[in-house]
Amino acid sequence: KVHKIAVLAGDGIGKEVMPEGIRAVEAAARRFNIGIEWTTFEWPSCDYYLQHGKMMPDDWMDQLKGFDALFFGAVGWPETVPDHVSLWGSLLKFRRQFDQYINLRPVRLLPGVPCPLANKQPGDIDFYIVRENTEGEYSSVGGRMFEGTDREFVLQESIFTRTGVDRVLKFAFELAQQRPKKHLTSATKSNGISISMPYWDERVDAMGLSYPEVRHDKYHIDILAARFVLSPERFDVVVASNLFGDILSDLGPACAGTIGIAPSANLNPDRIFPSLFEPVHGSAPDIYGRNIANPIAMVWCGAMMLDFLGHKEAHDAIVAAVERCLVDGPRTPDMGGTATTTEVGKAIAAII
Ligand code: NAI
Ligand code: MG
């Protein structure tokens, strides 16, 4: 089977790291004899917006829905297009319309990466964050009344559906089941948020009954955030609602090194719609145009994409190549080196 992949490089360094992500995936595809067909799109991007008044054409969904995966760089160019316009006009549409209800981020301290936490070795930090990506606290239900008066009030509801909660928990338990430690941690706040979070906890316990081999525990989000920093070695799979997961999934990668290496996936595990693979970082206008962006996040995204498409061996080969490059290969300036984006990308591809 040939995998059809849409290339959406976007803006800024998205355009610089994308060729290196493709280079790594192609190297792995050659080594493991995987068929890949790339199709490049000029949108979504702020350049497209300046010409057309929107980030993408109206029929974007028809154009993209037949692909097996979306390989996404970053969008955003705040000098010309406000960030909420570029983000809501592209990435957030993909997540919602393609029902990418899992946001998955690996958090791993790799060898050769300076760790901001004291006394941590590679191997100490190795877990996944599974964030609910479609409902919860990020609902658009609510409103504002009596604006500008003393009676002004605003209201925004959280929405937790049984289907929405159970499907993210199921994904997280399945992932934990496949890992050696078989340990799942749920983020909650059922002491303070007294209706929706006790419900979340109940569903965690109910789902746990179907996974007797997986040990599960829960932490309130405040102490959980502290434990990410103080004792990250205790985690294996962490599952969280949309808001809590959003916060944890930036904190986690920050604990494991620079933003230039952190990947993420927005998954539709039912495979009705394409899933999207993107670096955690944005378009970095401050360094764009100098070919110094770190391509490792994009390369690692390529590995996650191949894993999701059924090629675990290709994933492992790319991650191993990244690890080796971090130890004795060229480095971009954010990692203390002087190499270019292209040099690092080529070095990784050569190792693969
Ligand atoms: P950013 O992630 O683009 O940059 C933050 C800092 O990290 C900058 O100093 C940048 O130079 C550095 N950095 C980021 N990626 C790097 C890499 N690969 N190698 C070396 N250094 C790297 O976040 P910022 O500055 O808040 O946002 C810039 C634009 O990106 C905005 O328009 C924002 O909306 C957009 N953005 C888009 C995202 C997406 O497409 N998913 C995610 C985050 C931001
Ligand atoms: Mg975030």
TrEMBL record:
<dbReference type="Pfam" id="PF00180">
    <property type="entry name" value="Iso_dh"/>
</dbReference>
<keyword id="KW-0560">Oxidoreductase</keyword>
<dbReference type="InterPro" id="IPR011829">
    <property type="entry name" value="TTC_DH"/>
</dbReference>
<keyword id="KW-0479">Metal-binding</keyword>
<dbReference type="GO" id="GO:0000287">
    <property type="term" value="F:magnesium ion binding"/>
</dbReference>
<dbReference type="InterPro" id="IPR024084">
    <property type="entry name" value="IsoPropMal-DH-like_dom"/>
</dbReference>
<protein>
    <recommendedName>
        <fullName>D-malate dehydrogenase (decarboxylating)</fullName>
        <ecNumber>1.1.1.83</ecNumber>
    </recommendedName>
</protein>
<dbReference type="GO" id="GO:0051287">
    <property type="term" value="F:NAD binding"/>
</dbReference>
<dbReference type="GO" id="GO:0046553">
    <property type="term" value="F:D-malate dehydrogenase (decarboxylating) (NAD+) activity"/>
</dbReference>
<keyword id="KW-0520">NAD</keyword>
<dbReference type="InterPro" id="IPR019818">
    <property type="entry name" value="IsoCit/isopropylmalate_DH_CS"/>
</dbReference>
<feature type="domain" description="Isopropylmalate dehydrogenase-like">
    <location>
        <begin position="4"/>
        <end position="348"/>
    </location>
</feature>
<dbReference type="InterPro" id="IPR050501">
    <property type="entry name" value="ICDH/IPMDH"/>
</dbReference>
<keyword id="KW-0464">Manganese</keyword>
<comment type="similarity">
    <text>Belongs to the isocitrate and isopropylmalate dehydrogenases family.</text>
</comment>
